[in-house]
Description:
Blueprint: H1 8-14, H2 16-39, H3 42-62, H4 65-69, H5 73-91, H6 116-135, H7 138-148, H8 154-161, H9 165-180, H10 186-190, H11 197-205
Helix pairs in contact: 1-2, 2-3, 2-5, 2-6, 3-5, 5-8, 7-9, 8-9
Amino acid sequence: MDETALPLTELLATDLDDGFTELVRTQAGAVRSVLLRLSGSAREADDLGQDTFLRAYTALRDYPPARRRELQPRAWLLTIAANVWRNHVRTATRRPATADGLEAAQLDLPDSTPGPEQRAIEGTQRARLVSALAELPEHHRLPVVLRHVGELSYQEVAEILACPVGTVKAQVSRGLAALRSAPLLAADRAAGHDPLRASEHAAREGGVRR
């Protein structure tokens, strides 16, 4: 969008089709990252992402312009994505698949321009983290992913999960502790690498909202 373009929520209110195109452009990466780490499968993340945006568009068509203007687009979309994933889990006949065709994580490691060898190492570490996340129970996995991948505040996560902020903080803390002791991450621990350190540092420095 150029400097004269309308803000996203205003565009959604005045021109739904153009606004929705911009919503997809700006938020598709966040939605896919969350769904990838929830499902552990690139294929499922893509399918669930399509379902998320289909449901979002259907909902937006029924919203009056005033309600579209009041949206918090990322939190709203991730609420839908979380519900889509939970519905998928309830109807699935198998556990979430282990990671396949993973993309580079957006927050596990600092943004940098490493060489090919380092990128391969980091990609393997990220794949193990996604697989470890897939092993967490839903009540730990969802808060951890919404907080540290979706970059939502504790209050926003609490609203999505319909529980007190204190409960969310406890679930995130326990989820992170479980990840640190996960057998899948034993090789990273032995090498002195903590795949979660960067995200926690970002939270302390303001990279993730409180």
